[in-house]
Amino acid sequence: MNGKVFDCKVAIVGAGPYGLSAAAHLSALGLKPCVFGQPMDFWANGMPAGMLLRSPREASTISDPRSALTLEAYETVSGTQPAKRVAWETFVSYGKWFREQLECQFDHRNIREVRRNSSGFHITLADGSELSAEHVVVAAGIGPFRKIPQTFSQLSPTSASHCYEGRKFSGLGKRVAVVGAGQSALESAAILHEMGVEVEVIARIHELRWIGLHKKLHQMGIVSKMLYSKHDIGPIGISRLVAYPNLMYRVPISVKDRIRTRAVRSAGAPWLIPRLQRVRISTGRSVVSTREIAGQVELVLDDGTERRVDHVLLATGYSVDISRYRFLTPDLVQCVRQLDGYPDVGPGFTTSVPGLYFVGATAARKFGPLMYFVTGTEFASLELSSKFNRTRA
Question: At what angle do helices 88-100 and 17-28 cross, to 10 degrees?
Fold first, then answer.
């Protein structure tokens, strides 16, 4: 401690699941964190209506220190009928209810700039207001990391969009090409088809993959629990490994990258299969060129065939690169030791910049793929709060 009086001890950038969970755990330590941003903004405004969470119910709760603010608790107090698959709307409402239960400072203004100074951090808000913080926890999510392949980068926003940028599917036109083979691609295609849109999925992999098709392996009691974790991330064996982020942290980075890639490779939930029966799916194909013609998009595939569509929906995933967080000044980003865009976080989610922490997907390169999912909030917040506790001691 340097004796300086800060406007807030801990500033949390982002009010999604990881930011809210961190706020709950740090508040329990008496730290009174300040949380900046619209609650559940990415989930509320970036996800397509009608989406269901891929994660099972037991892996869809945001962590709090007393385990009192569970999804089930929200359903009880709100009168929401529990469903096997959690609807997007339910999860957004749950997150906002979670935020209302917390006794800490919330500021819905976004942060324009975080700059390091001699004693801590200087923060400028979107309206020009300024404040200081001793610690900054970045829980800003994956919104800025949308991956747009070069082939589609020259198309106008009216002709192409990423599936998670908040566009309403009802305005995409009568014919839509969905590029990708993961859950977001397949679920988007199903939703579009059910809206009466003529849709085609274009996927580079030669055969679609489905999660959890081996039901018998999940119905063997204690044996199944030894093979799979409750988080349901990754195949047999890997599922158990990624459930222990501190163990993943100690795995060599080259091995860890292979495990991470395998655990979150493109695949869809099997409950989508019947919803896609009448959807055209072209596997083993990729788009090699695009151009806009008279309000439509012409796609040329690698087999020489062409498509004419009203819109291209890109379900092409994300690529973490903290330099794309515009609120971090370039000189601050340069001071953060990185691994191909990911911050090189250590125990407690610390970085090479004292007082700066990254939680959520940005920590997945070091702690494993659990950090990509809501269920990872439990480990992340416990690890973060433990670090603050040790620092205070």
Answer: 30
